[in-house]
Amino acid sequence: MSKIKSLLVIGASSDIGFRLTERFSREDVFIHAHYRKESENLNALTKAFPQKIFSYQSDLVDKKAREDFIKNVIANAKTIDAVAFLAAPTFKLSRFHDLSWEDIDRHLAIQLHAAFDIFKSLVPQMAKQKFGRNVFVLSSCTLNVPPKNMADYVVGKFAMLGLVKALAAEYSEKNVFFNAISPSMVKTKYLDSIPELAVQMNMQNHPLTRLAEPTEVVEAIHFLLSHSDYISGVNLPLAGGQVY
């Protein structure tokens, strides 16, 4: 069984990120929790475990803020041996011809450029210590035919998947693993910008006639971070049979 000692959660104020932080707070793990917007739940959890959870505010779109954040984490943590990357920009349905490059670039800035900078800083130490466990949360859109009117979102997720595959190919021999989880719609506030009718139709067409629960995603992440000593480079479907 993998034994991580220091976990960096990117996007810890999200519904899934908070529950993941909460899940690991019950274990002997130091948690470095990144957030962009204040979260009462995350603040309360940090105060409850002041010697175990350390929080950092940063807008990953801003290059200077991103660089300062990475420096602060490294200075405080010394080493990070696991990363859960959950950060994603706000979402909206848009036809391709209504998108600007700035829309796509925002997804790439957070989900590719920020991830690139973070892992470029952390991976050398993981490789040196011959241990690292890293998980990206993607989307079921990477598993089959992607949905319409989501080009910016889809491009961002596939860019992350390419990074996962490339890093897994290069660092698995160092016992530094990179994996992804691709859930279908999850019951979180991230869906607030999607029309309710679209959410209901998704549920009706789902084999289980429901959305995924955040805790179900958390348990999959926890498994890949804590119990996977022979899994690297996978994109794990978490879609209840909706896609394979």
Describe what this molecule looks like in 3D.
- By secondary structure, the protein is of the alpha/beta class.
- It has a single domain (6-238), classed as Rossmann fold (3-Layer(aba) Sandwich).
- It has seven helices and seven strands.
- The chain has a seven-stranded parallel sheet, sandwiched between helices.
Report mean pLDDT, rounded to a whole number. 94
How many E strands? Answer: 7
CATH superfamily membership: NAD(P)-binding Rossmann-like Domain
CATH architecture: 3-Layer(aba) Sandwich
| Percent in strands | 15-25%
Largest sheet: 7 strands, parallel
Helix-strand category:
alpha/beta
Topology, element by element:
Layout: E1 6-10, H1 15-24, E2 30-35, H2 40-48, E3 53-57, H3 63-77, E4 82-85, H4 101-129, E5 132-137, H5 151-171, E6 176-183, H6 196-205, H7 214-226, E7 235-238
Helix pairs in contact: 1-7, 3-4, 4-5
